[in-house]
Amino acid sequence: MDSNKKLGLIGRNISYSFSKKFFENKFQKLMLKDFSYDIFDLNEINEVENLFSSPELLGFNVTIPYKEQIISYLDELSDEAEKIGAVNCVLIQNGKKTGYNTDAFGFEKTLFLHKKNAQDKALILGNGGAAKAVKYVLDKHNIPSKTITRSSETNFENLDTETVQDHKIIIQCTPVGTFPNVEDCLTFPFDGLSSEHLVIDLIYNPNYTQFIINASEKGAKTVNGYYMLEQQAEKAWEIWNFQKK
User: Fold this and answer.
1) Quick one: pLDDT at residue 3?
2) Most exposed residue of 8, 91, 131, 158, measured as fewest CB within 10 angstroms of its CB?
3) Inter-helix orientation angle 103-114/226-241, to 10°
């Protein structure tokens, strides 16, 4: 008789979670009565060690701010996770903890669903775990990119409209504008945007961040993070389940 199988999400201040609802719906659809998905809100990453002592734990997702910090607690990384330097999915099998990055898969699906040929250079806003996955995908497809942070040479204060005009793909990877701070918006020269631009904001809550609203007012094609989120979750489900074949 199978015992309960536990999955979950680790992060900080994560009462709102797409993942919990997503996986609980999945368990219902597949009639899996012995699966559960929990939110593990950790103040510090070292609290993850308490989780590892739970024998029913199959694995978990990882979100802000632990995608990079989790690595030192794992035994092994997938190729992508190692190249990216960030993990958002952990599989625990026979006590061995392996880190994966399914953000890359989710972003890749999102990008190629919307990208047009003329959109051949990208600006990545931010440099956290999600931004690293985005850069990995762009590099993989030989799409030149420039990362903008608060402290980079080209930063949020001096980024000009010409640079924005010249980069037809903009990916907003910072948490600025996430619920509940929906009024917040990055400093960005929106005047550089046009209908030739594709703007992807990885935030999914709210559906339309202030950043997306400002971008769409300039005629840009805008996409939020919802599809990427679904795709990375599907990939995580595959990782947690293939080992039972």
Assistant:
1) 65
2) 158
3) 140
Q: Is the same domain home to 190 and 121?
A: yes
**Global confidence as pTM:** 0.92
Dist. CA 70–CA 23, nearest whole Å: 22
Q: What is the pLDDT of residues 25-36, one digit of tens each?
A: 999 999 999 999
Q: What is the mean pLDDT of the chain?
A: 94
CA distance 226 to 207: 8
Catalytically annotated residues: 67
Residue 113 and residue 89 share a domain = no
User: Quick one: 73 and 146 in the same domain?
Assistant: no
User: CB of 49 within 8 A of CB of 71?
Assistant: no
CATH number, position 88: 3.40.50.10860
Tokens of 80: 């992508």
> Cα(182)–Cα(178) distance, rounded to whole angstroms?
6
The answer to whether residues 224 and 108 belong to one domain is yes
